[in-house]
Amino acid sequence: MSASTKLSASVKALCYLAETYPVPQNSRIISEKIGVNASKLRQLLSLLNNGRIVKSEKGAAGGFRLTKSPKKIDLQEIYCAIEDRKAFDLHTNDSEKNLWRSAEINNFFLGLFAEIQVDIEKKMKKIKLSDLLQKVEIQSNYK
Fold first, then answer.
1. To which H or E segment does residue 84 belong?
2. Which of 29, 1, 2 is nearest to 16 (CA)?
3. What is the largest CA-CA distance in the chain?
4. Residues whose CB falls within 8 Å of the CB of residue 68, separated by 6 or more in sequence, listed in order
5. Which one, 11, 29, 92, 136, has the greatest CB density within 10 A?
């Protein structure tokens, strides 16, 4: 699953949990509501649980719920909880080091991608889950 797909699925699940708060929701119900494969969703919810964005509650009435207000959850926090790599990455191997200007060109892209990554994360830090919920609500009123 790509980074953007994982982020989108995670945000959909978190928006659903925000709208159903404080009632915990099980992964099967969340999966059905947001249209994400249940197995993949459980993996994402596990990562979000490890990132302390959601809490898993056991038992018959258990499930997942947000650990804090959507006003205190930003997209960068969600992204960092579900991703172990950067959005932009350059995979290189040792066989490239003897090729014409390969190292120099790779270094250029590594620097560029690092700058882009910082810009992306700064922008995501400013966007709260509550902002997204508000925009979705406003947009749905115009349909």
1. none
2. 29
3. 63
4. 53
5. 11
137 close to 26: Cβ distance less than 8 angstroms: no
List the chain domain ranges.
3-141
Q: Which two tokens stand for residue 99?
A: 């090729």
3-state secondary structure at position 65: strand
Query: pLDDT for 93-140, tens place per residue?
Result: 666 667 778 878 888 988 888 898 889 999 999 999 999 999 988 665
Domain 3-141 matching CATH 1.10.10.10: the answer reads: yes
Task: Quote the CA–CA distance of 11 and 129 in Å, as a whole number.
Answer: 8
Single-letter code of the amino acid located at 60? A
Chain centroid offset of residue 98 CA: 38
Chain segment 14-37, per-residue pLDDT in tens: 999 999 988 999 999 999 999 999
